[in-house]
Design a protein that fits this description.
The two termini are 41 Å apart. The longest helix is centred in the middle third of the chain and has 29 residues. Helix 9 crosses helix 13 and helix 11 crosses helix 14. Helices cover 45% and strands 11% of the residues. It is elongated and about 75 Å long. It contains 14 helices and eight strands.
């Protein structure tokens, strides 16, 4: 397919490369001309402006916006709305608040433009591993764009239907793309709503690993009775948990990498930022009267991390760096 990609940062650049590898024709734009030049070398067509990008696409056009959520996304989509024609589609793959998606879809629909929101997970590893996507928008448009999603997605893995189809109580997903790593979950906003909850759960899982490892580490402290004191190899423990343990996961894989590189995670101060999705998850839980103790506590712990330092906070910061390439900030808000 033919696609316009706006934003070539940590995610957008690698998504463009994965699409190019899949045989798609991608026209790109980014304010950073160096980022454009890098993907041109991989086969993309560069555009100096959004106007040029739109002009290079054939109708019905599809433009994927992959820039930071908030003002940057609003400005990009607002400018595109004035350049695109009826029947064209805008995709937002960033971490947008789902209620903003609903308002945006309604606004674009007034100009006969289609809007699709894609909750995209995969971080800096997505080029090779693929991207997990939850998609919101009109079913017929999502179906037309399926070749793009199929290329970006991981595809069936070792835990696909071949070993689970006959499990007691299993659900027939033969007509779904879920096992390929992407799924249409509903109308506008639904894709980012599901991704928001995904990120809230992620906060809780990361917090559990962080607290558990700190307990293990502190077992060697002189505060512990010598009879119960252990000098544990945290990297070995993370590694063994990866093999057959019920807590095995990609987050644990990333934790093993971080500990392999530095057992004490001394390169991290433990200042843990939040992207906003955790806050939105907690706010939504309040609106729905749903108790969310773990997710709320994990969010508040990130707030606390900006006031003091601990090994658990360094675990959280190291995990964010591993899966998302997030650069740690210091206490004054600058990068460290």
């Amino acid at each position: 397919m033919q696609l316009g990609m706006v934003g070539l940062g940590r995610m957008g650049g690698n998504m463009t490369r994965r699409l190019l590898r899949g045989g798609h024709h991608v026209i790109v734009y980014d304010r950073n001309s160096k980022a454009v030049d890098e993907v041109i070398r991989d086969g993309a067509i560069g555009s100096p402006t959004l106007c040029d990008l739109v002009a290079g696409l054939e109708a019905p056009r599809t433009v994927w916006v992959m820039v930071p959520a908030g003002d940057a996304t609003e400005e990009a989509i607002g400018e595109l709305a004035g350049l695109l024609s009826p029947g064209d589609t805008v995709i937002d793959g960033g971490n947008t608040y789902f209620k903003d998606d609903v308002a945006r879809a309604e606004k674009l629909a007034a100009g006969n433009l289609h809007y699709v929101d894609v909750g995209t997970s995969g971080g800096v590893w997505g080029l090779e591993r693929g991207y997990c996507m939850t998609i919101g928008g009109p079913a017929e448009i999502v179906e037309r764009l399926d070749p793009l999603f199929e290329t970006l997605a991981p595809g069936p893995g070792k835990d696909d239907a071949t070993q689970r189809r006959d499990a007691p109580g299993s659900v027939d997903l033969s007509g779904s793309n879920a096992r390929k790593g992407y799924v249409h979950v509903g109308p506008a906003g639904a894709g980012h709503f599901v991704k928001m909850i995904h990120n809230g759960i992620e906060y809780g899982m990361m917090q559990a690993f962080a607290e558990g490892l700190e307990i293990l580490r502190e077992s060697g402290s002189d505060r512990v009775d010598p009879r119960h004191r252990y000098d544990l190899g945290l990297h070995d423990i993370a590694e063994v948990w990866r093999h057959g343990s019920v807590v095995s996961s990609w987050l644990l894989d990333l934790l093993e990498i971080a500990l392999r590189e530095d057992r004490d995670l001394s390169a991290f101060s433990g200042y843990v930022q939040d992207s906003g999705e955790g806050r939105w998850t907690v706010q939504t839980a309040i609106e729905e009267d749903v108790p969310a103790h773990v997710l709320t506590a994990s969010l508040f712990t990130r707030f606390q991390s900006r006031q003091d330092e601990s090994y658990a906070m360094r675990v959280l910061s190291a995990l964010r760096h591993q899966f998302g390439g997030h650069v740690e900030q210091n206490k004054n808000g600058g990068q460290s």
